[in-house]
Write a structure and sequence with these properties.
heterodimer; A: Nucleotidyltransferase, domain 5; Nucleotidyltransferase, domain 5; 3 domains; 5-stranded mixed sheet; 13 strands; 26% strand; B: Rossmann fold; Rossmann fold; 4-stranded parallel sheet; globular
Chain lengths: 311, 298
């Protein structure tokens, strides 16, 4: 039996899973939509991965990352649960030990990670608002009646991208409507959107940070060739987009699962495991905390959301 | 006997102790609103308009809590500590906003050092409104400020002593009414402490030193509390591992100052902007990754 390690990255939009061996080779991977239900998505993901995993491998470590990492960590009994910034950096450094800058635009987060000599020296993440992220792009694509996957190709056709205010989705949308109504061709509008994503990112997340080569662009939006084009153009540098860029978080957490293995062998059989959450409002003090109780096989494994720490 | 209400917000974190000492000396009973809880915050939202910052909305919640529990509220109107040291509009407008929103008597005084209106006069005024002679109030003022200065000096010594700690050190750069509020900063401090971080507070430095030091970043800034905060950063910068900028949405001075500072310093930092709907999940991701980075290992 050979050893292997599972990494699961549960984001707001998509859920990514990867199984690697001791030499960081990807044995199998999968990328599916979260569709607002991380537990269901992970069950589906594990089923897909299980089918593709050769019989001579056993799982010796499980790691979870992404915004649902804690919940799924309990479901899978992961041996490591880590934030996505660390996971992304570790994953990327595994394949690109010399990388200096990681640009990442995901479903509702965007971040920049600066690395020197294999150590994160600085990073930034978008604050309150999700303008200029994947969810913004997909809602605008819907407005224009396009599929988000063909968005980039449309942008490449344009010679004159229109100017769009991308600071705020609401303003961008009214800008977009105006531009369409006065007759701009759709490819110019799409190109304008892609360009505004880049400008917005550099102004909000990348502000004041020294972006040095080699630069890697990741996250769901890195699949958009239009956005890549404008990153290259505006930064005046080459941008590396790895074909597994969308999996870097999952790979990173799988690597961390290997480094932190505890000698246990895990089963990928989830169908016989009941996993429920119950939300209740506490009401014992004026805080009225919303408590979330997590049950695994009808046994309370954790509860979250209490301010006082009693529960 | 008349009872004075002290709202646990904004001014409380600068003047609360002085007020308490002052009323203690004069044997005036007072009530302080409890730590911020959700009910207080939600009540505050009802009275606030949507352009006010989270801290001020919370403040109005504290005021509404006290309305039927006291005879007077104490609310100053703070304009400036000299013209190059002004405060944000909340400090200037709180008295008038509360007076126009709630039906309650207010003990008020102005602080505008450019017009020579200072704390001593202010407290003497308040003493007068409560029926004390100028002499009595003067003594109470002396007692209140004396005790406060002693406590403050001790706090500063403890805080600055942390700069020599062996743990990973983070400067929490924030206004005290955000830092110490139960629904704004407390969870962050708790999380950092639980992860073995030495938390140093930007408001617990000697402002005589820090106010001037802020000029190393910019000479154009005229917000007193922002200047004190960034001066603390300059003072501490060679001894700390990272900075957390914490502010309440949509704070005017912070959005200008923090932005400016972040562009000029080369210390690892993150910017946390909190609003009432902030769940701790997003904050935790940022704090966890920040700590990972500072500790340098995965």
């Amino acid at each position: 039996m050979k050893d292997s390690y599972l990494g699961v990255d549960i984001g707001s939009i998509s859920t990514k899973g990867v199984i690697i061996d001791d030499d960081n080779n990807i044995i199998t991977s999968s990328y599916i939509w979260t569709e607002g239900n991380p537990i269901k998505a992970v069950r589906k993901l594990i089923d897909i991965l299980k089918k593709d995993l050769p019989n001579n491998y056993q799982i010796k470590g499980i790691g979870t990352t992404g915004s649902a990492r804690k919940l799924i960590g309990l479901l899978l009994k992961a041996n490591i649960v880590k934030n996505e910034i660390t996971a992304h950096a570790v994953g990327t450094l595994t394949f690109y030990p010399n990388v200096r800058t990681i640009l990442e635009i995901g479903g509702q987060d965007s971040k920049i990670i600066l690395i020197k000599n294999g150590i994160i020296t600085n990073y930034a993440m978008n604050t309150l608002c999700a303008a200029g992220t994947g969810s913004f792009l997909s809602s605008q694509a819907k407005r224009l009646g396009l599929d988000v996957s063909e968005f980039g190709a449309y942008a490449l056709k344009s010679k004159n991208p229109v100017k769009i205010a991308a600071r705020c989705t609401v303003f961008a949308e009214s800008d977009l409507v105006h531009k369409a109504q006065v007759g701009y061709p759709i490819e110019d509008i799409v190109a304008g959107l892609c360009k505004s994503i880049v400008l917005n990112y550099l102004n909000n997340v990348g502000k004041g940070k020294k972006i040095e080569s080699p630069i890697i662009f990741q996250g769901g939006v890195s699949k958009n060739v239009g956005v890549i084009k404008y990153f290259k153009e505006i930064l005046g540098e080459d941008i590396i987009v790895d074909e597994n860029g969308h999996l870097m978080g999952a790979i990173g957490i799988a690597v961390l699962a290997r480094k932190n293995k505890i000698g246990k062998t895990y089963s990928l059989e989830l169908s016989n495991i009941a996993f429920d959450t119950k939300a209740i409002e506490c009401g014992r003090c004026p805080n009225n905390c919303e408590l979330l109780k997590i049950y695994r096989n009808n046994e309370l494994v954790d509860s979250w959301g209490s301010k006082c720490g009693k529960y | 006997m008349t009872k004075v209400g002290i709202a646990r917000g904004i001014f409380y974190y600068y003047y609360g102790d002085i007020w308490k000492n002052f009323f203690d000396y004069l044997k005036v009973p007072y009530i302080i609103s409890p730590n911020t809880n959700k009910e207080i915050m939600e009540n505050g939202m009802k009275y606030a308009n949507d352009e006010m910052c989270l801290a001020f909305k919370t403040y109005l919640g504290h005021v509404s809590y006290l309305i039927d529990k006291c005879d007077y509220l104490i609310i100053p109107r703070i304009d400036n500590y000299k013209l190059d040291n002004q405060t944000c509009t909340n400090f200037l407008s709180a008295y008038d906003i509360v007076k126009n929103t709630f039906d309650i008597k207010i003990l008020n005084y102005n602080i505008a050092l450019d017009k020579h209106q200072n704390l001593k006069q202010g407290l003497i005024n308040i003493g007068k409104q409560l029926g004390f002679s100028k002499e009595q109030s003067k003594k109470a003022y002396k007692y209140a400020v004396g005790l406060y200065k002693k406590d403050r000096a001790r706090d500063i010594t403890i805080n600055m002593g942390k700069l020599n700690s062996n743990k990973t050190k983070i400067l929490l750069l924030a206004h005290p009414y955000n830092t110490y509020d139960d629904l704004i900063g407390r969870d962050i401090i708790k999380y950092l402490n639980a992860n073995n971080i030495e938390v140093i507070f930007s408001d617990k430095f000697d402002d005589k030193i820090t106010n001037k030091l802020s000029e190393k970043i910019t000479k154009d800034l005229y917000f007193k509390y922002s200047k004190d905060n960034i001066g603390a950063l300059i003072y501490a910068k060679d001894k700390i591992d990272g900075v957390i900028f914490l502010s309440a949405f949509p704070c005017g001075p912070d959005s200008l100052t923090n932005e400016l500072v972040m562009r000029k310093i080369d210390i690892p930092h993150i910017n946390l902007v909190l609003d009432s709907n902030s769940s701790f999940t997003g904050i935790e991701t940022r704090l966890e990754s920040f700590i990972d980075m500072l500790k340098g290992g995965f």
